[in-house]
Records
---
Amino acid sequence: MAEAAKTVHSPLVTYLSMISLLTLCPPFVVLLWYTMVHADGSILRSLDYLRLNGLQGFLSIFPRPSLIACQIIAAFAVFEAALQLLLPGKTVKGPISPAGNQPVYKANGMAAYFITLITYIGLWWFGIFNPTIVYNHLGEIYSALIIGSFVFCILLYIKGHLAPSSTDSGSSGNVIIDFYWGMELYPRIGKHFDIKVFTNCRFGMMSWAVLSVTYCIKQYEQNGKVSDSMLVNTLLMLIYVTKFFWWEAGYWNTMDIAHDRAGFYICWGCLVWVPSVYTSPGMYLVGHPVNLGSQLALSIFFAGILCIYINYDCDRQRQEFRRTNGKCLVWGKAPSKIVATYATTSGETKNSLLLTSGWWGLSRHFHYVPEILGAFFWTVPALFTHFLPYFYVIFLTILLFDRAKRDDDRCKTKYGKYWKTYCDKVPYRIIPGIY
Ligand code: NDP
């Protein structure tokens, strides 16, 4: 990953973007929360406030991490870590790493997901814990996460230097790149506790589901009912996260896990950015209960489901194709493919298959189209009074267009002439016929 950081963009752009993200993301999370919860979702109102009150004004709205916020985060993190370690699950092997290692995982994500949601809703139902407490302390929770996750990334950096878990680790020789992109590909505590599975899946993605439910319950407790816009948003986000956990073992074959090292970009992103930015359309709807009417609500809901399904099917198709070594049907026919040869960092030569039919024959990253549209459909129930709920969709579009370029560059380096053949056969990067 550090390699990708050095080659995809010029060094100036690379350093500027890393330093900007390191410094701007934390205050952005606080401003997003403040605008959603205390400024009616209006960017103009927040900007006005900042213009009038300056830095001092910003510092006074920056919530301090409170004891209750730390307790909520600690309880959630310990609960999820315990489920990850203790629940039974099938043993699954990840892809062969650049250094030739093959990580082994326990696939118990779906069970952890259901236990988490049932426990959370059960605690509310039986009057033991009210999720509105989470919403009421959201600012403090985000600020505790911002600081705590920064410390966590420093510890990961130190671990990468002093006690790496595998040979898939190393320094780029630059402290900012190492901290930002990470040192280790598969850091673990002991033999079994995989840190990236925890940060990305069991904390990040799980918090997305838990916070979606929280927003829904908060609106219910505030207004005595849940608006149809909130229902569509919550259900679509929950279906998306359910799809994620259904397919979690497949996720362990993707760029986040198989190529991106554990540093600020991935780990801070999953610990802070996912619970705040990814859930933000729901956060907005709490105080903006739009009524869509059943026809519009259902149309948006089914369009969203279709996008989530197509996104899932793209991932499933690629993984089924790789798992069966190309001996499967793609859209009812034998797949068309390229047999590509590449060398691992230890100099071993290996073969890999590239699918060139089905979704993967439309464009090289077609799966990003339904991913972005799905996010649009769970945001559009907010209608168009404010721009801010759409921040996630716009951020996601930029992220995925950048990711497609990073992935193409990495694959070009890995597969050389075979990748060129793939690009000749499937010329579009994301949108068929356009880009
Ligand atoms: P994937 O890892 O699924 O796909 C890219 C990898 O697949 C490449 O690095 C290459 O790896 C392999 N590959 C590329 N082309 C082919 C081909 N034609 N046939 C077979 N294998 C191929 O991509 P992502 O990790 O980006 O996406 C995974 C999922 O996560 C998607 O659903 C995406 O939408 C979602 N996602 C969501 C994000 C969010 O923030 N909401 C962010 C990023 C992704 P190899 O080296 O093995 O050949």
Note: The longest strand covers residues 337-343.
---
Amino acid sequence: MLRKQNVAVFVSGGGTNLQALIDAENIGKMPHCNITLVISNKPDVFALERAKKHNIKSVVVERKQYSSLQDFDTALIDVLEENNIDIIVLAGFLTILGEDFTNKYANRIINIHPSLIPSFCGSGYYGLKVHRAALDYGVKVTGATVHFVNEIPDGGKIIMQKAVNIEENDTPETLQKRVMEEAEWIILPQSVEKVCAERSNNEIENN
Ligand code: GRF
């Protein structure tokens, strides 16, 4: 029998990508996924309100409460195990995860990055900085990439990409908004569903 994959979404801010995932699940576009947990590394972020509104359990795990990255990783792993999580989605999660974590969940952590990797990615490229770098370089096309997470920042296998045109008078802010609307909110739910469907189907084959 088909088993839906339990998905945890990691957030640090507004949570518009979390919202796109919740909306996709609610309209039946993610039949192999159950978003059952939201983890934030900050209290008081709007993403937590979104989780509450949709009756999704949320937990705050702050990096500063742990003296080492290893202890932080362990705390996260404990929460994921307690909640039987299969797949982790980093949706604007701004804290580095350690190798203990990325190794344990190899091929099970999905990240969204607001450029076409391998452009404008890696250490230091996050938020508006990514869009500013694209505009400064003068590229005419940018976009978003969904990829698996490994120990290299933005270095894991690509799952999906979508291109977005840059317009004459774009600022980092207008470009960020268009990349979200035209790419991120579309390919993140599609990618998560793809990964969950593959895992659910493998489970059936192996049973
Ligand atoms: C998005 O641009 C995403 O690509 C990046 O962080 C931002 C998160 O925005 N990794 P939100 O919290 O989903 O609104």
Note: The pocket of 5-O-phosphono-beta-D-ribofuranosylamine is lined by residues 11, 13-17, 91-92, 112-114, 180, 184 (CB under 6 Å).
